[in-house]
Amino acid sequence: MKTKDWLAFTGLALAWGSSFFWIKIALEEVGPFLLVAMRVLLGIVGLLVVVAVRKPEWPKDKTLLRNLFILGITNTALPFVLISWAELHIDSAVASILNASVPLFTTVIAHIALTDDKMSARRVLGLLVGFVGVALLVLRDIEGDVRMNLLAQGAMILAVLFYAGSAVFARSKTKGATPVLQALLPLLSADAFIWAAAFMVESPVQLPQLSSTWLALTWLGLVGSCAAYLFYYYLIHSVGPTRTTMVTYTFPVVGVTLGVLFLGEALDWQLVAGGLLILASLLIVNRG
Predict the structure, then answer these.
(1) Which of 53, 194, 206, 237 has the highest CB neighbour number within 10 Å of its CB?
(2) What would the DSSP string read from start to end of 43-69?
(3) What pLDDT digit, counting tens, does each position of 247-282 carry?
(4) CB of 274 within 8 A of CB of 140?
(5) What is the domain partition of the chain in residue ranges?
C-alpha cells in the first residue's frame, strides 16, 4: 500500500477501534436503536460540512444511487444496531474481538465475487497470523469463567457477515462516486431506517441527559461514522475489500492500548506478542 493508504488505514483503525469503548458508555443511558440513530445523524452533519467545503459532483446514475442507499442498510444500519445490542450482553473487548473475523469472511466472498481480489497463499497466511494475534488478546482479556450470551455472539457474527458482504458489494457496485458521497448517501438511508425503528422499538424515545453520553455519541458520530467512512470508502477502491477489512484485526489492539493508557491496565507479553502478530499479518497481506 502507498503512504496515503497506510495513513487512511491507521485513521480507520483508531476511529472504529475506539468505537466499542464509546458504545459501551452510551449504552448506560440510551438503547441501541437511539444510540445508532443519534450516531449516524451526527455523522451526517459532519459529512454535510465536508460536502459544503469540497462541493463534489453528485452522481446521476440511478443504479449507483440505489446501491449506495442499499449499503446504508447493510453496511451501517443493521450491523450498527446488532453490535450495539450485543454490547448490552457482552464486553466491548469481546465485541471488538468477534468483529475481527470480518477479513476471513471477506476473503472468501471477494474471491468468489471479484476478479481483482483473489485469495492467495500469502493472504491466507497473513489472515491466519493476524487471527492468532487476536486470539492472544482474547486469552489476555477474557477470564475462563466468563460465559457470553449466545444470542449476542450470534448478533456479532451476523454483523460481521453484513460487513464482509457489504465491503465486496461496495467495491464492485459503487464506482463513480467520490468517497465523501459514498459515505454520506448510505448514512442518509441508514438514519431514516433507524429512526423509524427506534420509535417503534424503544418508544417513548428520550434524548440523553448525561454529558458522558453526549461525548460518546459525538465521538461515534464525527469520528466513528463521518471520518471513518471517508477512510473506509477511499480504501475499498484503493486497496480492495480484503485489505480494507483487515483493519478489524487492529480493534483489540486499540482497545487494549486504551486500557493501558487510561485505565492503568498492565502491559504484558500477550499484548506485545498479539500486537506484533497483527502487525506482521498486515505486512504479509499488503507486501508488494
Answers:
(1) 194
(2) HHHHHHHHHHHH-PPPP--HHHHHHHH
(3) 887 877 786 677 667 756 566 777 678 777 877 877
(4) yes
(5) 3-286
